[in-house]
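Internal ticket - ligand job 389, glycine:
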Amino acid sequence: MNLSKNQDILIVGGGIIGLSLARSLRNRGVDKITILEQNECGREASHAAAGMLAPQAEADCADDFFRFCQESRDLYPQFAEDLFSETGVDVELDRTGTLYLAFTEKDAEELENRYTWQKNANLSVEKLTAKEVLEIEPNVSPDVLFGLRFPLDWQVENRKIIEALIKLLPKQKGSVQKPVNSDGSFSGKARRLLLEGDRITGVETDLGVLSASIVVIASGAWTSLIEDKFNLLSDIKIKPMRGQMLAFNDNYKLFRHVIYSPRGYLVPRKNNRILVGATVEDVGFDNHTTGLGTVSLLNTAFEIAPEFKNLSLKKTWAGLRPLAADGLPVIGAIPEIENLFVATAHYRNGILLAPKTAEILADKIVGNADSKYLEIFSPRRFRSEAILS
Ligand code: GLY
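stdout (structure tokens):
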């Protein structure tokens, strides 16, 4: 489809995916954009995240998903620079790199395998002895066996990205004020897609109907709760996966790198905080923190660095990651509804994948440009054959 000047786009979901898409569409000349958001923009998974841009640290092969992650990471320096020039917000892209540490024989085997395949694939990875780890991060536990360093796996302050993207909203005739603005922006919960033949005409919300020429569903963990007569979104079966997080005060700047073990990670932030994450829990739409979650994250932190026992624990929170049945993102046109698109199921990589997702989807919507990733991650793979025939 090629967008004509008069078409308006409704994006359902104001997380980092929906907001990044709004920006990419605006950069391609689309000025009628409305974001429908049930809470406040960027207050769910995008707020809860730890901002790691780490395609290599956890990858066990160079598949399409890995390449998609890598390409999105590679967009980040320009994305961060552009957001700064567009909004004055520094999103704190930190390129110190990521360390992945082994503490047990099993960890060591996992890391050896990762090192071997990535080295053979000519990826940037360094193997460090325990002594070398302690030279660059002296507050890591002396029990460390060895580590891998990924110089191109970075971190960013995800909440600053949201701040920047929200700043761009008023300029695009869409915003998030309640209940309805004269420019068409809306705050509410999407209930049902309004379908007529092979087209979507709008979305029914708890506060009324929003009409649009093109609709994009970027509702994260809530995607499959939106109803329609063909079960287009419920068939994708996105479910929420809770991630609990901790934040410690750190006035001593104990760490420079993002540091993983196979049991979790810590992320040192500029504002004297260290984040520790994250649980992965299948508990429905419950975003509370629990005693068990906190204890398991504390154990992760103590194992990486016993010094955590002396830091003050400032905050705990949790977010709901959107997970599809096959664990992969769902991005692209909904089959046979020609003006309906989806961008969701980024699971543990929503921050990392936002720029690339926004680029390929905006190119598709505005210029009908194809991308191999729109094929690979197409929602077609969840379609039940009966519904649209
Ligand atoms: N991105 C890391 C996590 O979801 O825990």
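Auto-summary: The pocket of glycine is lined by residues 50, 52, 243, 277-278, 321, 348 (CB under 6 Å). Residues 64-87 form the longest helix (24 residues).
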